[in-house]
Amino acid sequence: MRKRITSLLLTLVMLLSLVPAMGVTASAAEPEWTTVNSFEELQTAVKAKKEYIKLGQDIDTSSLTSGVGLTEKDLLYFGYQNFVLDLNGKTLNLYTKLELRYFIQVANGSLTIKDGSTAKTGAITGFFGSTTNTAACYFIWVREDSALTLEGGTFSAQGKPYGTRVTAVQCGSGSVTIKDGVTISQPEFFDGGYAYDLDGNGYALSAVGKSNVTIEGGEFDGCVKLTASQAENGSVQISGGTFKKDVQVLYEEEENNSNPAATVSGGTFEGNVYLQYWPWKTRLYMPYRLNGGTFNGTVDLYADGGIYEDNNPTGNPNLAMGLDKCFGYNAVVTPGGTFTGPNAYTVVLKKTASGNSYKMSLDGTTSKPVRIIPNAWGVMESVTLDGDEINYAKDWDGAFERKDNSTAHTIKFKWKDLAPELSAAGYSYNATCDRYISGSTTPTTDTISATDTEYSFTIDKDAPAKVYSFALHLNLKKTGSPYNVGIYSNEHIVKLVVNEAPVVEPDPTIEGTVYYTSGIVYGSPISIAASVTPAEATPAYQWQRSTDGGSTWTNIDGATSGRYTPVAADMGENVRIRVKVTAEGYLGEIVGAALKVSKAANNGYPAVIQLEAVKNGEGTYTGFKITNFDSDCEYVYSTTSAPDWSANQISSATVTGLTSDTTYYVFARFEETATHTAGSIVSKNSIKLFENVPLQYVLLDGYDSGNTIYIKKGESVTLTVSADPSNANSWNEITFKDSSTTGTSNITISNEKIAASGTTATPFPNDHTITITGVSTGSATLDASYSGPTLPYYGRWNVVVYNDSTVANALRLENVYAYEDITLSVNDEADLPTDLPKLLPENSGYHLEWRILKRGTYGATYVTENDNIKLEDGKIKPKAAHAASEKAQLELVAVKDGSTEYKTLPKTSLFYVTVTAAPVIELTGLTVAPAKVNLELNATYQLSAVKEPVNAAGSLTWASDKPTVAEVDTTGKVTAKAQGTAIITVTCGTKSASCTVTVGHTHDTDAQPWVYMDPGTHIKTCTAGDDFNVEAHDFNAWTPNSDDTTHSRTCSKCKKSGEPANYTETANHNWQWVVDTAATPNAAGKQHEECVDCHAKRSENTEIPMLTSIKVEHLTVAKPVKDAAATAPTTTDSTYTVANTEWMAADGTPLAIGGKFQPGTVYTVKITLETAGAGVFSVKSTYNTIDGKTATVNPDLTGDNHADSVILTYTFDATEGTYVPTKPAITTVALPDGKVGDAYSQTLAATGTNPITWGIEAGTLPDGLTLVGDTIKGTPSKAGDFKFTVKATNGGGSDTKELTIKVADAEAAKYHNVTLTGAGTGATGAGSHAAGTTVNIYAGTKSGYTFNGWTSDDVTVLSASSKNASFVMPDKDVTVKANWAYNGGGSSGGGYTYYTIKATAGVNGSISPTGNVSVREGRDQTFTITPNKGYAVAKVLIDSKNVGAVKSYTFENVKKNHTIEVVFMKASGNPQTGVFVDVPEGSYYEEAVNWAVEKGITTGTDATHFSPDGICTRAQAVTFLWRAAGSPAAKSAVMPFTDVKAGSYYYDAVLWAVENGITKGTSDTMFSPDATCSRAQIVTFLWRSQKSPAAGTANPFTDVKASAYYADAVLWAVKEDVTKGTTNTTFSPDANCTRAQIVTFIWRALAE
Q1: Cβ atoms within 10 Å, residue 336
Q2: Which of 1296, 1130, 1282 is nearest to 1228 (CA)?
């Protein structure tokens, strides 16, 4: 059976690895979308947790439930998963007439809404038809620890009758991200009607609690309210978007937290922006950062707060520093001018009209908005050291950079230029750099031009070993003021320690020679031979070029091999080339002699010159024209037959102005260029400038008269006849004949006659041809004969007829090439020319070779070696230099193949070789290494001297200036003789170099005193100056000085050089007011100013005026009148404001402002008052009556107690008429399930007039539960389904509703341990807890740290960002980590930025540190990885990228957040197995999963997860089987199931499965494709696919009844070891079949 199912199961699991948990996809990149076309389908998809849902058409819910629309059971709950909803250009209309609280809720998961349509017309609209004045309604409600992302679409929300109670998007301690392309509309807003800016109802977007809000774009047609909390960049971040109405921002303060709560870096704000006031009087930190944006209204920087004259806002530095933080390095462009962070307080703080208070605001208009330009000044682009970017500090506490003085070091600061808006406003940089050097008491200050954007300083090589500190002050100044803008300097500090370079053992030196083994000719490769020692040195070549005759040299790009071919750039009188030889790991270089490159020979054959005579205007021949003029050739003419190339040069085709009746000879050769010599082959022709031009000579193509024509016996040659002069027009009859014999000739000639010219001038037939045929071997004389008075012929040629045996008589060169002479030294070699002319006849049995012409008494011979050179292996190898003007002549001879026999040629090519003495390589420099040496007494050290180049002439001489201290031998070996210092000098010719040797010196650094270095550092230095230590100052506490202005602190260790007292730092006091006795409404108080650093005091016993008690004298509100509308109170008093109003009937029914008073009803109004100035509410306060009614005041203020807010309660007489209660209407539609033994409590809800009484009308509650008031509560004691009818009753009538509670069986409690790591003092929650219960944990406190959230690999922590958090205890032990961020920071205007590295490790090992690790910006962080025994590292993922199986990893120069995740495997395993962090060691499926991975059956759902608990749907299971069978085509086209849509991925699979009896559906017409596939169904599908074989075994499972459809399938699976059940007696047929179980089935079937 295993064999029969092997193919099926392997294919099934391979498919499983390709299918995500919630759908079969065509590819990994495109998710499987569930398309919905009705609200029912949408709700079903959401409940089924379909991850990707798409609208297929518009959906309108207004007609549901008989026109009521949505009810409570219809609400969309996106929970416990990540969802994506694509509006797809469609509209989803959510409508209700009931009193519902929300339409869409996101809880314990995430929801992304997008619009994938091209038109971008997708929308969701919401209408609440029964809003009340007391309950808020949320169109989209994002719960705690949940996330909403809006990527596209329009979202609009409305409500009736109270539209202002509707909020479009509400977030409560969750996360909201809004991108461009989103519109949110909720135009109805109620601000309460009071003088407060941060209250109201009805928002487009509202976020409360610890929410995270990111707004990147979109349009907000409605007010926005955001509550922020302090985080790295703030929990609220706005970088884009258009805000049509007001924006309110509040924040939750954390004391001494310098992080912002909200950051604005972009966006357009068309309404006002209200930022909640911040406590600048006692806090340094402002919670807002305004880094960008355009503001058309007012930006209130202190909303709902008061700033008064007696607060001294202009004298408190906290306000200036807070606003500096708010605007920072940005430019703020306002209608009244432009400013920036350091002077913001002088602009935004403005006195009000009353003159005794201030407002803090930016005021823009639509035509003149406020614009914030980000990073407008003072922004450091980079700080580099030797070109590498380094960190810098904003104070003197930064780390040191460390280098040595073996090289020069350049530090460079580079910053951004001022924004044009600041320059236009009169701002400019006031930049300086203070340079501190250890040993100097005062810094050197460099002034930097206001227009510069960089500053650099270079510390020279071999500079003294010291500490060099740089403090760059990048400040602003404004035209008309000599002072910096702001109260703090914008410092950027770098501290550099330059140590003495360690003595480095010098590399060995190469020696040797290099010479050239070929001629130095353009276009021809130059080869070299180099002798380099030691033998293990690998030579490297670099060809160089000099353009000044050899004085300076530059490398030739790409010329790095032992051969080089000169190019055009190497040509010229002063241009030289050479080769340089080096070896990696060795000192020194070997250079070849400087060479002048010769031009290459030009052996091209110019075309035969074609000439025409040219007449002048009078008809006389006075010139000629070259009809085939070639611009690559040079031409001259002459009246003689020999050319003079310096005279009568021809520059164009036509030559005029010549003498008539004269014969001219024209010569051509290829012109000399920068790279080639003039041509060696000359073409010649003549022309007579006569009317009648008699023929002088006949030319044969390629043969001048007197040349020899070679013809092989039996072959022919056809030659073209031409005239000389070329314009001859008079000649006698010509006959070509052999004149050497009167008998039989050894040649025959055809077309041998040319008729005479006749009586009139006739052009010579230059196209006439003759054909000569060789008849027999021998010689002939060919004459162009005629009858004439002188010579009997116009031309004569020798003709040689040869055969194979006489071919030597016919040997000759087709062309005679010219070659440049070669001069080389005795150390050089040269290649023999290989560009040779053609030897004719071809295939003669001979070839060309070079020979040396050796003249002797008895004639000349040709040899391959003489006294000076030897020709060998294609090279010229010098033996000895030539004397005086001697040289060797080399000629080409014809050498018989396979023999040394040679034959000279009639005309041959030759050149001369001159051998010179070896060149002398000039010494250009001398170095010695090392330059400094410290030696113990009697120690020795071998110095290394290197000539530049090493093959230069000259020998080395060593000497010591103090041989009694250190002596040196002839090889450079130094011996220490006595304590002291000696200079060792090596000399070669005129060059020398030296080394300083110090004998017997011991550092005494530690014994030296500390000396002031810079404001942050002191130093102690060895008396020899070659060693030092540095550390930060050790200051005592600040103590006040007698001047009452400054305080000082003294370093306990160091003094400034030359000063007797320790270094003392002096700074101005940092004054803040401290209250000694608080003022009360009954007495004045006392206060004094105190320095926060040294606690000096001044202004003691300053009186704080007694608090003014508020008198409420003009508060009024319209009394209740039947059918009249409830109104808000008003007042003309200015000392307080009305903050809130609540009307309520005597029965507890609230009444909203605008709601109608009912008849016969007593109403009470609660009015909340808040102070609007310096006054307070106290026992002295009085409150006027309203309609004769006296107010009840809460709180009850007595004695010195006072408050900023009170609640006044007025109770009015009953309204006219009779009170008629509103009949109850039960709104509860369903109740949650319960469990035996678990506490249960659920409150029933109904509308109607209170009081409402509740009872059970029919049926019974579950055992253990009772109805108490409106709440069903207790502890169920019995399982079952319990139906009952509840009844709600009041004076107006009653209402009933049938409800059901399902009670499940109890489970035995299992207890496990909770471990808290990283927790602080006072932490709670660790210990033993029962599975299924809620565990509350508290992080405690850590001094100097800010809590940074909970993390755990075991559970999901609710409210993870809060110290107080919780989670549901699972059925296992749990570890939860508390993470903290170091507060860091400094007191000089600059803090530090910290980033988080999340470190996690899978099972079978650990990582240290672990969890969320906080790292200061620019620092390094190392993680150590430790596998458990028997395990190894499989891979390490850095930011999801695999970096291999490393045991540690260091994040260098941290600039952002990172993640590191470690996966372990068995030590003996394959790195591709055992890599899933969710496959625990020892789990029943561990071996199965590892086996499946190793066999390539599955790769998991991602790089580190297998998702063992993932489930499969019925559609997926059938599709697996169908694909395993080869995806056969179905025979039937009739689909029996209405829920299997044509075009779905599983359509064909279901048809096939039905045909093969694998499935019959869940009913006759339903297949239920999205239903989860149970264990019984999976096994049945497999069994049926195998044709339902008989099982034949006993049934071991009590939960598999014999009558069950799956009984035989289960027994078959047991028999084949496919499954063993979930226990020994249970199979759990209805349980979901997980990925782990499927892989285990296969492993058991195939691997065991």
Answers
A1: 11
A2: 1296
Span of 195-199, 572-576, 919-923 with lowest mean pLDDT: 195-199
3-class DSSP state of 36: strand
HEC profile of 267-332: EEECCCEEEECCCCCCCCCCCEEEEEEEECCEEEEEECCCEEHHHCHHHCHHHHHHHHHHHCCCEE
Torsion on CA atoms 1220, 1225, 1226, 1227, rounded to nearest 10:
-120
Distance, first Cα to last Cα, the chain: 14
- In this prediction, residues 592-619 reach a mean pLDDT of 87
Tell me if 984 sits within 8 A of 975, measured CB to CB: no
Pseudo-torsion of CA 1249, 1253, 1259, 1262, nearest 10°? 110
Stretch (H or E) spanning 1494: helix 1486-1494
Distance CA 333, CA 1373 (A): 59
Which residue, chain included where needed, has tokens 């207890």?
A: 1311
Cα–Cα nearest to 474, from 506, 438, 427, 517 = 427
The DSSP bridge partners found for residue 371 are 294, 333
Give the C-alpha separation, 1507 to 1501, whole Å: 7
Q: pLDDT at position 1392, please?
A: 54
- Rounded to whole angstroms, the Cα distance separating 245 from 236 reads 18
Using alpha carbons only, what angle is made at residue 1543 by residues 1540 and 1549, rounded to the nearest 5 degrees? 60
Would you give the DSSP letter of residue 1005?
G
- Per the CB < 8 A criterion, the answer to whether 683 and 667 are in contact is yes
Give, as one character, the DSSP assignment of residue 1324. Answer: B
Q: Are 113 and 152 in contact (CB under 8 A)?
A: yes
The mean pLDDT of 690-715, rounded to a whole number, is: 86
Rg (CA), the chain: 52
Helix/strand/coil for 760? coil
Helix (H) or strand (E) holding 1366: strand 1364-1368
| Nearest-5° Cα angle at 559, 556 to 561 | 150
Q: What is the pLDDT of residue 767?
A: 86
H/E segment holding residue 385: strand 380-385
Pairing assessment for the beta strands 236-238 and 212-215 based on DSSP bridges: parallel
Copy the structure tokens of residue 78.
């996106």
Assess contact for 892 and 813: CB atoms under 8 A: yes
Residue 121 DSSP one-character state: -
Among 113, 71, 78, 117, which Cα is nearest to 94's?
A: 71
Diameter over CA atoms, the chain: 168
How buried is residue 69: exposed, middle or buried, by Cβ count under 10 Å (0-12/13-18/19+)? buried
Nearest by Cα to 912 from 876, 860, 872: 876
Token digits of residue 293: 């944006």
Alpha-carbon distances of 1265 from 125, 1298, 1331, rounded to whole Å: 41, 16, 24
Distance CA 1059, CA 1501 (A): 72
Distance CA 844, CA 730 (A): 43
Token pair for residue 730? 């008079």
Count of CB atoms within 10 A of residue 1036's CB?
Answer: 12
* 1464 CB burial (10 A radius; 0-12, 13-18, 19+): buried
**Tens-digit pLDDT profile for residues 386-439:** 999 998 888 787 888 989 888 999 999 999 999 999 999 999 999 999 999 987
Question: Strand pairing of 1071-1077 and 1085-1091?
Answer: antiparallel
Identify each DSSP E strand in 108-173 by its residue range: 110-114, 123-128, 137-142, 147-150, 153-159, 166-172
| Each residue's pLDDT tens digit, 1191-1227 | 999 989 999 988 888 999 999 999 998 887 888 888 7
φ and ψ at residue 1324, rounded to 5 degrees: -135, 160
